[in-house]
Design a protein that fits this description.
There is one protein chain. The protein has about 1000 residues and is of the alpha+beta class. Helix content is about 40%, strand content about 20%. The chain contains 31 helices and 35 strands. It has a seven-stranded mixed β-sheet. Strands 8-7-9-13-12-11 form a six-stranded mixed β-sheet. Strands 26-31-27-30-29-32 form a six-stranded mixed barrel. Helix 13 packs across helix 22.
Amino acid sequence: MYYHSIYQICTNSQSDIFFTLISAPRIYFTKKISDPQTGERLSRDRVSGVEDAHEAFAGFSLIYKVTLTNQTDHPKVVRLGKKAGIPPINPKTVVSEPASTHFVLAFTRLVGALQDHQLFPFRPAFQLNALVSNGIVPPETVIKLLPRVRMLILEVGEILAGGMLERFGQDLIHGSEGRPILEILEERIARMRTILTPQYFEDQKKNHTHMAFIHRMMITPTGVFSYGPNWEASNRVLRQYSDYHDYFLRVSFCEEDGEQFQNEPRVNARRILTDQFLNRLDPAPPRKGALVIAGRRFEFLGFSNSSLKSQTCWYMAPFEIEGRRMDAGTVVRSLGDFSQIRTPGRYAARVGQAFSDTIGSVLVDAENEVRISDIERNDSTGKLRNFSDGIGKVSGKMVERIWETSETIGKAMPTVFQIRYAGAKGMIALDPTLKGDKLCLRKSMIKFEGSEARNIELCTWASRLPMFLNRPLIKVLEDLGVKDNTFLQLQNDAVERLRDSSKSAALAANFLRRRGVSSSCLRLPWLFEGLKNVGMDFWDDQFLERALELSLLMDLRDIKYRGRIPVKYGVTLIGVLDETKYLEEGEIYVNTEDEDGKPERIEGRVLITRSPVHHPGDVQMVNAVNVPSTSPLRPLRNAVVFSQKGDRPLPSMLAGGDLDGDLYNIIYDSRFCLSKNENPAEYPSVKPIELPHPIEATDVANFFVDFIENNLLGLISNRHLVIADQKKEGVFHPDCLKLAEMASTAVDFPKTGHKVNRKDFPHASLAKPDFLAPGPRVLVSKNKLLHEQREDDDDVEHLIVQSWYLSEKILGKLYRAINEDQFLEDIRHSIRLESRPRPKSLLERLYNFVQLQMSAAGIPLKSVDWIEFAEDLRISLCGTIIGGRDKQTKRQRDLSSNMKDEFNGLAEYTVDLLKGETREDTLNKCMACLKICLPNRSDSDKRSFGWVASSVLMSEVDTLQKEQRRSERLRQLHSRRTAR
């Protein structure tokens, strides 16, 4: 196990050590094997449990007892606590009690009970299953809840019961304090009756018009875990079957901590890949893989390109619609004709177009769809080049129709869109010369025929995105001649801006506004400024102060651990084609908008690139030029326009880019001006590996697992950084150039079927540079011997004890330039310039202030009438979770995101409930909520709820004060007129 996965360690004797874990450990079976070439060696197999019986519940076996064979070692073990990241080891009384019923028997009984759809419909049954599958409570305990849950379903219905049970599970996770479980359930039911109403779910649907409410599963080497439902971006399939969303699951295959599953070196993971993953994916005999939940059998359906990279896919359970049975095979066949495709990855990508996250848009009549030719010609070597790969055109009339799709799109009024349409994918850009309602598609956009879907589906649209550096780009730029001081100054400026954000309420509010912290309905930035306007400071409240600290610290960690440094004179834009032939070779046109929405055209010598960057030629210097005011290119806002002239398309030079939706980074800072362009990478084309038969679901499932096993792009990029840091030539070293080609092969693996062999990786030293450390609690050596290459021990990517060396190149300098402790000390000093004691309670001062305002306005204080309402409404709302001083795991980030989404939904509904029919009702409701959060009340630590109420309260008071000032001005004006 890894230290960061340990929650606590305790001991209750001279021989027993108890480990409580955050997630299930990695379990290995070690054996000796004989090799004719290398002799006898140890081999490790990754397994799902210590033994067969343990595999049934290994996913939520989070407490392990280790008995020392020699009791004299006990003091030595205890002394290890607090060293090298190991948690403290404390003495504690541990009581072990055997389960009243064998786990497997109890779980079988529970599963049998949940098969009855009449008694336990899917949504509540899913939550009951989650209580066990997520290791929250044992199955025999859930069985005891079934009679009460059945009553609840009869009382409030399936949807409300499911919502209440989901939040009940969260209560148990956050601590039940030894209370009877039925008591906790009854408390949650009572608390949620005023919140989870039919109207709540109707309002949620209205607020998520282009989204779907989907249940999620997470399959790891040790277990199957259940989450949700959560609002997910919709897609073509979900829109078509909008009344059947409970028959679809989003399923992730990953490590226990939510990070991507990757094969460890010298570890045989076939049992995990086959038994845990493929056996649940492959629907064909003999596996007949599926996920059976609450009586529904969910089978593998498909995945989009982006979800493949995140090792996530869709499952569905059969249902009937208009007398027709719909299952996974039926749905896939209805999407189009894929019979000519023989490469599993390419087939999956084509089917996956229907699973891309999209917004449904306008319908295109058949006569308005036009096929146009690609712009192709041979280069100087005779190789055919496509300058229009993935991009088409759209008329102004159709663009105006697209703007009507949603209020957000109508407000932005974009002229460039990334789309899915029937069997086509790619970009469409406004061509003002087109007449009528026209959509022009090029051959390179058409991926399959036979689709009857005629709606334009929007993946995204052109918008100005900020430009951030990253570690691979920084390394390439360093070796291309950009000075160290340039990066250090950019990073220092970024950190100083974070520090400045803590120096006043206005600056803090601006930061929170830019960062998008908290639900928009709470108007937290406005609240910071509003408090200041009435003579109060947000930093007088520990909750608000901590919220700002954590937000600033998250941005700081992005800079330190990812090299995510903002570039002021930089922008990230989607790429399109110059249809007018105005631009010459090596020229681009950039027409964007600044932060205030004003037009901004970039001209002069600029640097352009695209991630991921590995090869020195992935970065090019080009000329940004203007076009005539009458040019059809002028309306193309927030996009970079590429020339169709020259020997080779510029996008293809930038890490193999094209025009089907790729984003390009443009830097117009003279400090990044390179003296010359390196030749771009050029790798030979390979013929895709094809199967001798039509692709079936079993082929796609096997490809999915094959991709998980052979997705080595992250490891390639990591090895590239290490070798580039260690070699004098940097990214120009032959090993780095070899890795750049491997990265290209890995990116194209889904299309071609050609894999990268990990054994071909160039060797690196066992030690890693300090900037790749997961946190500051590591020992870093200056010993140059650690740089020595050790081929026999190379490729050890998952060492528990890792050696780190002090990097002397720019990434090491940037990493060490940030001290998190000093940063926190600085912002706390800025927040509290004076060493004055914190006032007793900001909420209490706000309560007294509003009470005076109500009195002055003649509004009676009747908050006592709303105390019961406030107690029922009070919920523990929390923002983004952030861990200790290390990088967050993907599971932490995903859970944080899910909690934030749910927080936003509940906050919006809570704000609506707080708004009464009259101002008097609204003020008194909010005052009741504040009252139950004051220090003299119980549960006073639920400050987040108090600030939800305060945001509504301050808004109402602000309106009241404006009306009073207006009335006073009118009174004074009337008095002056009377005096005349």
